[in-house]
Amino acid sequence: MTELTYKENIFPGTRQELIDRISDQLRPKRFQHVLRVEQTALELAAKNGVDAEKASIAGLIHDYAKQRPDVDFIAAIKAYQLDTELLNYGNAIWHGLVGAELIKRELHIYDEDILNAVRHHTTGDVYMTPLEQVVYMADYLEPARDFPGVDEARKITAKDLGTGVAYQAQHTLQYLVENGLPVYPKSLETYNAWVPRYQK
Ligand SMILES: [Fe+2]
Ligand SMILES: [Fe+2]
Q: 144, 36 in Cβ contact below 8 A?
């Protein structure tokens, strides 16, 4: 396991202090997932020329708000004047898009690339920086993930990060549609921006 020493002053504290703040927010299972996402993000970051400290922080905080009650998100959407369309969705969408706002205020992390990686880790986005792509894929591929096609997804992503993003965007949309689940418009935009482009 890689344990970075933070030097870039992105989070006002040590990695251990950040971990303590996160473990206060999450039940043990979710917390262990977060640690695995950090490690997978570090591997993908090294391969793709992405800053390791940013990958570590983004990986650790991506699910910071996952176990907050709905009322916290609804209050935040109103207080921070976020798109009221968000009120029609739920935790799956809120913990990233709205979670980033809670992270800013509670953890004092203001790096927009990191915050966008949190915002877009579930839905993806039309444009994603290499860091955002790393976190999006690390969440999908961390070692405990076990879904049909995960090995193929890991292979594809090891070869080319963008092709991995397209794979996930396609399969996530497919899953939502097949199960009659709501599709947040951004997920559809992500599909359109990434999937046809990577089709051979
Ligand atoms: Fe998440
Ligand atoms: Fe996650």
A: yes
Indicate the class that CATH gives domain 15-198.
Answer: mainly alpha
Amino acid at 83: D
- Quick check: 153 and 141 in contact, CB under 8 A? yes
Tokens found for residue 64: 């910071």
pLDDT of 1: 86
Count the residues in the chain: 200
User: Which ligand lies nearest to the CA atom of residue 123 in the structure?
Assistant: 1
Which residues are within 5 Å of ligand 2 (an ion), measured at CB? 63, 139
Which burial class, exposed, middle or buried, applies to 199 when counting CB atoms under 10 A from its CB (0-12, 13-18, 19+)?
A: exposed
The answer to whether 114 touches 61, Cβ cutoff 8 Å, is yes
Rounded distance from Cα 172 to ligand 2 centre (Å): 14
Taking the centre of ligand 1 as the mean of its atom positions, its distance from the CA of residue 143, in whole angstroms, is: 15
Distance CA 153, CA 140 (A): 9
Quick one: pLDDT at residue 6?
98
**Segments in the chain below pLDDT 70:** 200
